[in-house]
Amino acid sequence: MDAKHLIARRVAQELKDGDVVNLGIGLPTLIPDYVPADVRITLQSENGFLGLGPLEGEPLPNLVNAGGKPCGMIPGTAFFDSAFSFALIRGGHVDVTVLGGLQVDQHGNLANWMVPGKLVPGMGGAMDLVTGAKHVIVAMEHTTKEGGPKILERCTLPLTAAGKVRAIATELAFFRFIEGQLILCETAPGVSVDAVRAATAAQFAVAPDCREMCLT
Amino acid sequence: MGRPPKLTSAAALRPHLHDGMSILFGGFMGTGTPPRIVREILAAGVKDLTIIGNDTAFPDTGVGLLVANRRVKKVIASHIGTNPETGRLMIAGELEVELVPQGTLAERIRCGGAGLGGVLTPTGVGTSAEEGKTKLAFDGVEYLVERPIRSDLAIIKAHLADATGNLVYQRAARNFNPLIALAADFVVAEYDELMNVGGIDPDHVMTPGTLVDALISAQEP
Questions:
Q1: CA–CA separation, B34 and B196 (whole Å)
Q2: What is the ipTM of this complex?
């Protein structure tokens, strides 16, 4: 299993029956494939609907996901305008948002929207999602392409939101923020706590019941 | 003299278009942006526009065409990443870009149309989005004061319309369209299909016709 699919599989275990979930573009869109059949989630698409589904057959006019790509919708879908969509997001009506990260720090800060001087695409809906969703999960590869740490003592890139991250899933580890502290809860199969520590620049505690991810 | 009829041609927009004007547009990466109206704005040759909406789409889609053809002086949007021209012109100093979180942008436009002086949002607190903004705290939670947005013109993409201007949007093309209908001095909507007056169930009207000043067919050549 490659890193992205491992991460998606682990995040899927966090979702509960009945959850309203918003998934960022990229890796998080793999997650629905790993949600157990008895866990029914509703996907919110911040461009204006609840009921996002996979594209099946020919695309329908005016049906795109938050990446602007043709998508599907499930029976029972509801459309709305952008103010309503973000009322759902900020108002705590979205249970979980899963999005990628450039950096996360031990204070629960997330940076994922710009690299000054290099990449300035705009924050889109990310600031609202990270601020307003009840549970924020960052799903990302543990290190940069160059092997540098992305889980830090303090983010150096501009923040998306301050102190809102609740969990981090990577191909090496699963962390939770518990009472403001970053806790290593699980390691990926074959990965030692020391290996996680070597790839992480943040201070974290190891949970007393820290175990290997169960990915079957 | 009565009000001019709302059903009109794209060319009739020309007197409402001028250099330096501000335009609110509906659309999310082009879905819900009126292509026929954008084409008319391009053909009119107006420049130094301030365009306000979610994103600048792609270089060949939606308002992306206005950016790529150098008609825009300033963009207020939540995202410009899908249109490399926007970023290129911004870095070259030829285009001003104000990035606004998407939910904040929606609320600022809603305030502009609803007669409100602003909105308090927790989004952006502790980030660069709070620079230059007033912060208020209530019950231990910090909020940014975000000011309303209005414009000279709003350009809307509807699916159904009737001659009174009542509008129905289709699927994900709704997005910012109902919000901008309240927030501009002149509101023009492009429709796919014209219904008889009374042909749209009043319970299904999404934007009431009194807000719409002009209607243009998407099929107009």
A1: 21
A2: 0.97
pTM score of the predicted model: 0.97
Write out chain B's pLDDT in tens, 221 residues: 456 789 999 999 999 999 999 999 999 999 999 999 999 999 999 999 999 999 999 999 999 999 999 999 999 999 999 999 999 999 999 999 999 999 999 999 999 999 999 999 999 999 999 999 999 999 999 999 999 999 999 999 999 999 999 999 999 999 999 999 999 999 999 999 999 999 999 999 999 999 999 999 999 99
CATH homologous superfamily, domain B10-118+147-217: Glutaconate Coenzyme A-transferase (3.40.1080.10)
Phi and psi at A181, nearest 5°, equal: -115, 140
Alpha-carbon gap: A66 to the closest alpha carbon of chain B (Å):
8
Is B99 within 8 Å of A89 when comparing Cβ atoms? Answer: no
Q: How far is Cα A117 from Cα B168, in angstroms, rounded to an integer?
A: 42
Pairing of strands B184-191, B214-217: parallel
Q: Does A99 contact chain B (CB < 8 Å)?
A: no
Mutate to test the interface with A, among B60, B89, B175, B204 (most CBs of A within 10 A): B175
- Report the CATH superfamily, name and number, of domain A3-212: Glutaconate Coenzyme A-transferase (3.40.1080.10)
A72 touches chain B (CB under 8 A): no
Whether the CB of B55 is below 8 Å from some CB of chain A: the reply is yes
> By C-alpha distance, which of A54, A49, A85 is closest to A69?
A54
Task: Name the residue among B107, B128, B171 with its Cβ closest to that of A158.
Answer: B128
Residue B95 tokens read as 């285009």
